[in-house]
Amino acid sequence: MTRLPILIPCLTLLFSLLPCHGQEEAPAPRPLPSEVPNVPASPPLTSFATAGGKPYPINLLTALKLGNVRSLDIQLASRQLQAAVAQLQGARVLWLPNLFFGTDYYRHDGQIQNIEGNVFGVSRQGFMVGGAPYLIVSLADALFQPLAARQTVRARQAQVQAAANDTLLALTQAYFNLQQARGELAGYRDALQYADDLLRRLDKLAPGLTPTLEVNRTRSMVARLRQVTLQSQNNWRTASAELLRVLYLDPTLVVEPVEPPHLRISLLPLDKPVDDLIPIALTNRPELAAQQAVVQATLRLLKLEKMRPLVPSLLLRGWSTPVTGTLAFGYFGGGVNGDMSNFSMRQDWDIQALWTLQNFGLGNRALIRQRTAENRAALTELFRVQDRVAAEVVQAYSLAQTAASRIGETETELREAQILVRENLAALQQTQRLGEGGPIQLVTRPLEVVAAIQMLQQAYADFYLAINDYNRAQFQLYRALGNPAQALAIDK
């Protein structure tokens, strides 16, 4: 099987903020977003002070480590694994008897019948101190239950890894949603600065050069930019709360990533055909390993029910205490009426091998049908998981490729939009006369500057969306291929 050279977790972070480690170099990234003129820096968190938010600086590597340690989903899966291991330990000792230690006092007064059928009155008592093994076990259970429990442990182990991978995906999605919100806020603030500058320039123009309609349009745009800036701050706070939820941290904090919002990460190359990636995912995904173990467990249980009528159950018990039938050996004594003497050692054992047909065998047949149905259901679920895994690989790969192509286009869009805004603002105060003795008018109308600022705002939104779509897709593809989440949080 052709395997993709898995880049043992390499974070190609811009500005070399985080160390990159792996067996192969990651694909060369496209031109850094910092090369785009005037890309705004990460906006400050001062606007959250009145909302009670406390800044919480963090970088992606630290977030990955916290996710592996603090995720409740991983902890839950680990507890379920511990329970499965305990069940396996119990299944392995089914053939061992229970041990009883204690005393037994027996007293009889009145009529009693002997073995010949004679009835007579007697008073007697007895006392015993001792112990006994006690065992009722189906050998079929003792043989096959550990095999099924072992497969359940394998399934739980794979589910722990699946939980770690799912946490990685949820964490990175939340992290890059936060980065996108920060970038959009920076873009809105930059556009708002240009809009405020436009208003100041309009106020300095001679009366009559600018139609009132265009001035009103400019003021409307400024008002809208202010309200979308506030909404963008709320988007940041919402994304921060979601990231803190995944990390199980104080939700009143406001996360401020150390990296810039135009951080770009490349984990895996995109030069392989998607058909080569699907077999890798089908081999590595822990969800498939877990479901395969579930299928094997159902097969063991089916074999158990088929063998149950053929394999005997063992009964081992003591008989030295005829009333309770519990103690098998010990120190026993007693006598007639109030006499309590003649103490000595005593032991009585009862061992049986029993074959059982439940409900004339019809109960066994029903159990076999139940286990067969469970096995077929597990197989169906396995096929469904396989289809989902293949679909996730295709979706993540397509998104990553598309986002990679969009980044270059959005860089050009943003660069040209910035140039357009600056040139339009510079030309706003230039005037020209229409014909001999005609009226004086502006070379560049305010409406054109408004349109340029709106284009700039959209360019920022497109740029940060493309960057973070690419980052999200990279981690989606990484998880879709079944790569271990823990490896991304290891310092080398």
Structural summary, described in words:
- The chain is α+β, with helices and mostly antiparallel strands and 492 residues long.
- The protein has one domain: Outer membrane efflux proteins (OEP) (Up-down Bundle).
- Helix content is 54%, strand content 16%.
- The chain contains eight helices and ten strands.
- Strands 2, 3, 5, 6, 7 and 8 form a six-stranded antiparallel beta sheet that branches. Strands 1-4 form a two-stranded parallel sheet.
- β6 and β7 form a beta hairpin.
- α1 (60-70) runs antiparallel to α3 (139-204), α3 (139-204) packs antiparallel against α8 and α6 packs antiparallel against α7.
- The longest helix is centred in the middle third of the chain and has 66 residues, at 139-204.
- It is elongated.
SSE order and pairing:
Elements: E1 54-58, H1 60-70, H2 72-92, E2 98-113, E3 119-138, H3 139-204, H4 212-247, E4 253-257, H5 274-284, H6 286-307, E5 313-318, E6 329-336, E7 341-347, E8 349-354, H7 362-427, E9 431-433, E10 440-442, H8 446-480
Parallel strand pairs: 1-4
Antiparallel strand pairs: 2-3, 3-5, 3-6, 5-8, 6-7, 9-10
